[in-house]
Amino acid sequence: MEKKETTSLKWKTITSVIWKFTEKVAAQAIHFVVSIILARLLAPEDYGIIALVSVFITICNKLVISGFATSLIQKKDADNLDFSTIFYFSCAMAAVLYVVLWFGAPLIAGFYSEYENGLLIQVIRVMGLNVFIIAVNSVQQAYVSRTMQFKRYFLSTILGNTISAAVGIGLAVGGYGVWALVAQTLLSALINGIVLWFTVKWRPQLKFSFKRFKELFSYGWKIFTASIIKTIYNELRSLVIGKFSPADLAFYNKAQSFPQLIDSNVEGTIDSVLFPAISKKQASKDEMRAMLRRAIKTTSYILIPLLVGLSAVSKPVILILLGEDWAQSIPLMQILSFAFVLAPMEIENLQAIKATGRSDIVLKLEIIKKVVGILLIIASVPFGVTAMAVSAVVVAIFSAIVNAVPNKKLLGYTFKMQIKDILPTLVLSAVMFGAVYSVSLIKESVWKGVGEKVAGLFTSLISHIPSEEIQNWVINFVVNNTGLCFMLLVQVVVGVVIYISLSVIFKVESFKYILGLLKGFLPQKTKKTEE
Description:
The chain is mainly α. It contains 22 helices and no strands. The protein has helices spanning 2-41, 44-65, 68-74, 80-111, 117-127, 130-146, 151-173, 178-199, 210-244, 246-279, 285-312, 314-321, 329-336, 343-355, 359-380, 385-404, 407-410, 415-440, 444-457, 459-462, 468-505, 509-530. The radius of gyration is 24 Å and the shape is globular.
């Protein structure tokens, strides 16, 4: 019976990962395409304003949901009264925080004198409405995570991103500038919440239990505090960079968004499923360790080469997708890609600690990491935005090490064991990086020559365009970007071939596991369909 339950949880976890991954990839794909379009329609300064305001909104959102939603997932016997209690608490917190944002907007705008004062106040007050939306659907998302109904996320996320994307692009074309980004952000969260409300059966009762709140608070406040510390620290760089240069903040955030996109799709997916899954195995230390070890090995095998490869192809990616106006993001993206390489160790170790109920350790770890991180930020400020990017990589490595230490005692999974588990992936990724980056060292004139030849093939087609101005723009675009596209294609092919070939030659365990998982899952789905 116990073996049957373990098998059931395994397949439920696998299907949850697939649904969550599909939802995140589809959502991020839409967001990615839209961000490229908007980056070419809007100025970097518009993105700088949104990046700055998002700092304060993100902190408020964390104050509303952090810790308490997690406590609902972690609690073994959480019922509707628990969910309703946290729901009303979150809504009340949202109301208080919005009032603070409303009256604090002029103070924030006054501090950041580089921005248009009146515009910044308006954007803060309008985007602040997002806090209410997050409060309303945060508990429902916790319910979905606890019951592992990740299929429910798919429809809400796709509809929210698609409709908000259309509106955002329409407003950008219409010349509304920063308001296009504001509308896109708010609509995405609003539609997501509305669809989730109608597709998930849970509804809050008209009940609030101070006793239940106290029970959940005893676990959740430490996670809550740790999350707030982490959020404030993560946004601190944006606050500092934004103070000196709106454009630099836009370049930094755009450079960070690419590796963050990969990390959130891969690591974010497994992270969302791992915590509820491992929480169900609290009684078995061996099973928790096995799940954590598998998650770190598998996620690292997928995530690390993607991030290392992204660093190697930063130049063509930025120039093709965003254009020359965003060229200052290239060196920043090359550096920041490495800030996420050890994310599997950092995040999944933390999830395992939370699942054991040791929220006190989580809080202590965050304090240690952020004290070191803040010191590095202070030290890097005089040297500019590039130095701040380097400091982010150093902090990420330190954080991964710190998060790994407690699980030696809690689960018997030492830091040495973890490094040994991901070492094959690190070595393969390093070899791949060298090969991919060497392709970019080929003289630029070679790639441009390819672009000119391709442009020559389309000369007759381009000549039919009625406007000479548009003809010239198309020719320049083809000449400048076709060579870059060809270089990127060569880099990607070289990277994939080398990484997969080395995995086969050296019989990397994670590679064999993923292949076996796919082979084992497909017949399972076929069998269910036939039944």
